Amino acid sequence: MNITIETLWKQGKNKSEISKITGHDWKTVSKVIKCLKAGRYPERKPCTKLLDGNKEQIVGLLEKGLSGVRISEELRLLGVSVSYSAVKKYIADIKKRDDVCIRFHTKPGEESQVDFGYVGLTSCGNGKKRKTWVFNMRLSYSRLDYYEKVYDQKVETFIQCHINAFNFFNGCPEYVKIDNLKAAILEANFYEPVYQNLYKQFADYYGIKILPCRVREPQEKGKVESGIKYVKGNFFLGRKFIDGKDVDGQLRNWLNYTCNTRLHGTTRRIPQELFNAEEKDKLIKLPEKEFSMPKVGERTVYNDCHIYVDYNYYSVPFEYVGKIVNMEVDNKLVRISYQGKQIAVHEKSEGKGQFKTENSHYPKFKCYLSTEYQEQYQIKMKEVGADVGRLFLLLTSEHPRDWNRTAQGVLSLTKTYPKEVVNLACRRALAFNIVQYKTIKNICANGSYKLPLEVNN
Questions:
Q1: pLDDT at 43 over 80
Q2: What is the reported pLDDT for 430?
Q3: CB 146 within 8 A of CB 210
Q4: pLDDT one-digit tens code per residue, 84-97
Q5: How is the chain split into domains, by residue range?
Q6: Strand, coil or helix: 426
Q7: Can you tell me whether residue 392 is helix, strand or coil?
Q8: Tally of helices (H runs) and strands (E runs) in the chain
């Protein structure tokens, strides 16, 4: 309406003409033009909705996790006559508003929330600075915080921060709620999350359950979001540090004597006191030994069927040449997997430049030392003739690493010459202790296999 009246007014129409064209009352048109002259549109009266009077009850029911059907039932019990579709629409409108947050309540020891927050460049000594993040684990019930400065967001770092936090709390919560971090989840899928294997091993070891936030639902970890904002604004902002150790020392001091001893704005309790009184004994006990974290990573399989790990080489089946595989290294073993399936295991080499190779990882036609491979060729050579069979035994004895090419060459002669000719050529070559393919081929070609043998066998 406002735009239509503005357009006609700018075209030179008077108030009466605009009223006739638009069908609006003359007073309404006059009011709009008066506002336009003042450089603004007239303010709209707030539109009240049927359920606005019950907004507080509806938000409270949403916080309890009730569905739209259940909320409509509860409203009817309160005497509110409204359809389910109206309730559903009103709930959708609440969830769309940026200024409305659905609060999630948890029991003592039930949940913690974790996240990384970038805090800029911090001094690491010698006048140098490094990109720095802060890790935060916050217990959802008591709001007790654990903070740690880190220089990367690798999965190993992420897990070690968890371990340090559990040691700080002297226990584990039942659930750890995380955002869809690449360090923890490979696919941002709430219903079927694919956990990175190492993080899953860690969670199983401590007996905790990982609870990822749904995609585009950051309010589900709003407590740790607040924690990140708090540490940025109340610790890192405006402080100077000598080096990384100074950051760690000041952060731990602030954590113990400021952060966790303040009066929390939401709970109106001091986090440390609330934790000691109601949550400490609800945490899962720590295992006797800390999780031993293996080294993980990705490697490309070389053409020689090996991967390179810590200056040593480990073989994998030849089918994976050129592919990227995952490796996991602990104190004793190197485990290699592809798309979640383990394809090789080796004892870890202690030195450098060493090869750990399983001959079965090579294709059989490349593995000349394979007994099965040699037996197949021995049978083929004997089928040509007894002397060809004798040649094969001498060949593998004198040339154990490269006999196959000569054997293949001799067998290929049967495509040009009868088997009897090839066998006689081999007999003459053996008389002179010769095993070269080229010589045997020449004997077949020039007919010298017909000549009497002049040497004693």
A1: no
A2: 93
A3: no
A4: 888 888 888 877 66
A5: 2-37, 52-96, 111-282, 295-361, 371-450
A6: helix
A7: helix
A8: 16, 12
The pLDDT value given to residue 38: 74
Euclidean distance between the first and final Cα of the chain, in Å? 117
- Rounded to 5 degrees, what are φ and ψ at 407? -60, -45
* Pair of tokens at residue 416: 């040009």
Phi, psi (degrees; rounded to nearest 5) at 123: -70, 135
Residues 6+ apart with CB under 8 A from 442: 448
Task: Say how far apart CA 193 and CA 190 lie, in whole Å.
Answer: 6
CB atoms within 10 A of CB 457: 6
The one-letter code for the residue type at 350 is E
Find where tokens 């079927």 sit.
192
Nearest-angstrom CA–CA distance, 108 and 139: 9
**Beta strand spans in 221-305 (E):** 295-300
State the CB neighbour count (10 A cutoff) for residue 70. 13
**Contact (CB, 8 A) for 261 and 274:** no
Q: Which CATH architecture has domain 111-282?
A: 2-Layer Sandwich (3.30)
Three-state SS at 226: helix
CB contact at 8 A, 424 and 448: no
Per the CB < 8 A criterion, the answer to whether 311 and 348 are in contact is: no
DSSP state of 195: B
Q: How far is CA 251 from the centre of its chain?
A: 29
Asked whether the beta carbons of 284 and 174 are under 8 A apart, the reply is yes
3-state helix, strand, coil in the chain (%, to 5): 45, 20, 35
